[in-house]
Amino acid sequence: MAAFAPIPCVPPSRNEALCMDWSNDPSAPVLAVSGRGSDIQVFNDEGDRQEPGIEVTRPSDATHIQWHPKNKVLAMGWKDGAVSVWSETAMPQEDTLIHAAPITMLTWSPEGSRLLTGDASGMMGVWKVDKRCRLTPICQYAKKGAITCCAFRNPEARPNSCPDFFFGGDSGQVCFANDSGRCSDAFAVKGEIASILYYNRREAVVVITRSFMLEQYQLQAGPVPALKQTMRVKMSGSANDADTLQCIWAGDGTLATVCNESMVRVWDLQQDENYMLSLNDEAIATKSSSDRITKVMFNARRGMLAASTKDGLVVFWRFVGAPAGEEDAASAWSPVTTVELNARVEHLAWGPRPSLLAAGFAESATVLLETAFYRKVRDGLGCIQSGPDTLTVTRAGVEGATPLNLTAGIRISGAD
């Protein structure tokens, strides 16, 4: 038997988890958690704080952090517009040449050869980071409204190259750019943009707005890139919840969206259909029918969707494919398990191993580690692992026997 066991990060951060991200090394994964006042802590996959941590002294909060896709290098964007980079082998580097407003978007290119940043005033920056983590601005683009979204045209780029990319934000304008100084207005939508995603199979850009419009634009062949709208659908949602709208890929051509509802809405762009994964499914153990989903993340290697809730639950679904002849598209997803964390979850992040997930709360963070729970029966005694470091021992066949709960103090890796 295996289940996701919550392991609180120790010592507790005692600070609001503003953002978090896992490093990309599956052999030694570390979780970076940023808090108020330039506080960035690092934890291993068992929730233990790593020393020395990331020592960055700044007068403002981090708004975005992201590990390099290949190296143990962390990029950070700050509320005062600074961009900094940290690694184990070099002193933290910082630059304020491009931005003077809060950083609202930060992402590495797929191969890590470029760092892209956007700010609240509409400035988009492209940086080169060398082996000594020195930041060099390559180009910048001035637009209107906060830059909040970015998607690369071809994630499977050549080594050391940066694919062309689309970016946009509050103005509704979507721009098409590269790292050589070329930038053009591709198309515009009505209202603020919540997400920009690139559908590589169809060479199409998918845009979701905070006015709950889902639009798709096909890239047309030709010497000058042009995009043609091929889909425009009104989504369900309340204007009061527009700021909570989140949209991610949940498979090839499959979108998952959440917006302060008791369900994950799934959009199959290939089959042109949509359906819901509800918390009220009888197979899911929820605390109340009024619970609402706060975040959703998808693990492509496992085909597993994780959704967190206001009541402190993390619910898992796995994509199993719809049975032959089944008309209910939602049957393609099977509820796996529910983990209770007893606090509203504000952030979710899958780790570099498919057995790792992190959850961030108002004042702490927790690692969710998929653990094999052991059972053993011998000489009339039954031993059942009830947690990452706890065992329950009972006497078989004796009515009224009081179970004995044992705490090992370390993570249990076997029982005999």
Physical arrangement of strands within the biggest beta sheet: 1-31-30-29
**Could you describe the largest sheet, including whether it forms a barrel?**
4 strands, antiparallel
End-to-end Cα distance: 15 Å
As residue ranges, the low-confidence spans are none
Number of helices: 0
Shape: globular
What share of residues is helical? under 10%
- The percent range for strand residues is over 45%
Give the radius of gyration.
23 Å
Mean pLDDT: 88
Class by SSE composition: mainly beta
Query: What is the tally of beta strands?
Result: 35
Could you describe the 3D structure shown?
The protein has a four-stranded antiparallel β-sheet, with no helix packed on it. It is mainly β and 416 residues long. The mean pLDDT is 88. It has strands at residues 2-8, 19-22, 31-34, 40-43, 62-67, 73-78, 83-87, 90-95, 103-108, 114-119, 123-129, 135-142, 147-152, 165-169, 173-177, 183-188, 193-199, 204-209, 213-220, 226-234, 246-249, 254-258, 263-268, 273-278, 293-299, 304-309, 313-319, 333-340, 347-350, 356-360, 365-372, 375-378, 381-387, 390-395, 404-407. The two termini are 15 Å apart. The protein has no helices and 35 strands.
